[in-house]
Amino acid sequence: MEYLIVLLLIFIGVLFLMQLVFFELTRSKMEKANNINWFLSLDKPFSYNRVGYMVFLCLICYFISSPVELFTLSWFVYFVLFLAMGIVADAVVQYAIMVYSKKRCRRQIEDAHLLQNELQHFSPSTQLENDYTLSSPSYHEEDVLRRYIQSQDHLAVMSVDAGKFASQLKGETEAMFVIEPYTDTQRVQSEFTDDLSVKVTTLTPTGKMPFKDEKIDIVMCQKCNYDKSEIFRVLKKGGYFIVNQHGTENLKEFVRLYMPFQMKGSWDAQNCAQTLESIGMRIVDKFEDYGTIRFHSIQAIYQYFTKVSPDFANVNRYQVFYLQALKEIKEHSYFEMTTHQFLVVAQKMY
User: Fold this and answer.
1) Cα separation, 242 vs 148, whole angstroms
2) Taking residues 263-288, what's their average pLDDT?
3) CATH number for the segment(s) 132-348
4) For the whole model, what pTM was predicted?
5) 105, pLDDT greater than 90
């Protein structure tokens, strides 16, 4: 019996040391990442829910190490005893780690609760003045577009901004088609009642562009997806395709927090240009802009996302991000995110 007690204590000691090392590595990683939710999780009451895991682990270990003949009465008796020791040892270690973690991270847990309480009392509003600053862009897409359009051109603008970008170009071409795949076209058309040369349309039911072959002089893609084959089809020979999109690094502080497995590869001016060259288009020009956006309040972050990506403005759903941002604002008076956009001008040569 004494041997079993000693064995159990040794087992607990080894497990505790392993869990302690794992906890310290995780704590260091979470502290560097400003993961407030992880520190909040340390303050939960103890509950043991690893019985199934320990049954599986002990069974594997017992199969490998047991000197007793398989599936005999003695084998079952010793297995039950071994399993009971394993579960007791694991439960003791889990509880000890919980106590240790609360003492070790007491300050971070208290700070996390204060931040969570402040975030819970945050009242979303879009009525306040913008409290964020953008770095100066290295190019302006509307200026680039104007270098290529002529008054007699037929221009197609693809966007998801309810015609906002296209409204800056009213009267500059013979005809302009605004392609809005998600917004009610009648509502957008009402924004152009004073310009009969503008027609608001959408993609066909099969996702194609609503034009005959080689009918458009310039296609402008403003921060939305496109089908390169369709672009090539509708462009006249010598026509231009101008694509302005967000790159891989855009808002990476948010994206990588929630979608870490979607960040393989890179989407930038060079890669975009290569895809257009692959269908026979000539690259005329390209621009790349890496910048920053600096927020001075949670309200400012909410306002910004409400405009550019309404889903991200859900404070409760993305609490991890907003807590991290709030902590940065408290410590440095601002929270900074990366912006990345690029523009490629391509010409159809045949």
Assistant:
1) 9
2) 92
3) 3.40.50.150
4) 0.75
5) yes
